[in-house]
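step: validate -> pass
step: tokenize input -> pass
step: predict -> running
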Amino acid sequence: MRFQDWPSLRLVIPLIAGIIISDTIDDTHTVVTVSVALLSGTFALTILSFLYSDRLATLYGAGLSLSFMCIGALLYSVQQQRVHVNWPAAAATHQGMVTEYPLERERSYRLDLTLQDSPYQGRKIYLYVPKDSAAAALEPGEHILFHGVVNEPSNQGTPDFDYRAYLYRHGISGTLWVPQNHWRKTASSAAEPFSTRTARLRHRMFEKYREWGLEADALAVVSAVSLGIKRELDQELKQKYSTSGASHVLAVSGLHVGIMCVFLYFMLPAFLFPKRWVREMTVMLIMWGYAFIIGLPLSITRSLIMFTLLALCRALRRDSSSVNTLALAALVMLICNPGAVYDMGFQLSFLAVLFILILEPEIASLWEPVTAVGRYIRDLTAVSIAAQIGTAPIIMYSFSNFSTYFLITNLMIVPLMFLTVCLSMSLWVAGWIAPLRWGVVRLLTLLVSVENRCLDRIVSLPHSRLDISIDKPLTVWAIYAVVLLLYLWLKERRTRRLVQALACIAAASVAATIQCFVV
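step: predict -> pass
step: emit ->
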């Protein structure tokens, strides 16, 4: 396996580099101008080197990489130009549409609004209002009028976290707090977007879980893994999953998509379909419909793009590279939404899958069990170790901790979560028949109880969480570069890969030393 065998990965890396470079420059207008100028030159170089490949072959790869770097910088700068708004200093009256159910805070409700009035139409803001029944009753799609001063995002009150950059990267243009008598619900003739309809549908599905008898931790976990609704997870439960290294099972991601696809393939056997591609497309359409219902979170979008491409390859009986498919999914998502590169779910999801794809076969080859149970344990162990290698640097940089018993956690929780997701899907069939519904609800409640007890035991073990911190982003990049280069060195047996890895270590050490003296 060579780096040249992953052409999509060779494009997505410079695209990400362009996004990051653009994010470090505040003057987005200059970035757009420079990116357009550079893109014109690099694109011309790429076309020229392609046409004269016999003499300019070495320039083709460089021109293509530079072109995608410029595209990344251009797309991110254009996105940020729309998000950054110079709000007027005087109070004004605005109209906005509620896009999510109110989020309860200690002393207020946070309303996610999309402004409907010109010249700020389409901008997203956070509106904080006092707690009362009128605010609690708001639903997605409803419109409100409010009067106040919209402020640019700031870091006030969050000295250890760049809250301003976080909001901008997630498309939030401003925030404000208004008293109770400074806002009211109003009618509007504006067309209701599809996203608000799906938000209300998710809420009705959640209430149906409650109506069918799920409650407490069972309701919280089932709604998180099947609907992507995490508001019922209390802080103690979140901390338990985080400390044990099981947070990933609460996010609707590749694990859950894989489980659901297996379930659907079982429920839709091949003999029901005249052609293979009809079955593949039916399953994918069902999964994409489900993804739209739960709000298209980045983790499931990445998974479904991958699964769709793989399904197309299976339907056409073509071979496919999983790493290329993963990188192509990232490429599509970042071109559509360049700011997604800063989303923690996006980072952890892609890195986990990337390292599973490249390291899991190597780790699994170290042991060849003779029984089916042994092979299952071997495969799950290899996947867990590969995923942990891929995500550990990001976790230590963002959360300053490391879950020591992650392997034990995955060996115990993943099989239970497989059953939980399958039963959650089955509940939508059994829920309309009282005896079956009672049985499925009792089984789900028992499963979640067993999961939580297992996590309690793991968390209670000595040193279950180590406080390990990585302070600088450059160190994270260096770690990933070194791991990838060492892997390529082992596969290609080329000395230059080892030299490149050592050069990365040396460069990161020099940069860290310089930063210490500068600071």
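step: describe -> The chain has four domains: 3-83, 92-192, 199-466, 473-518.
step: cleanup -> pass
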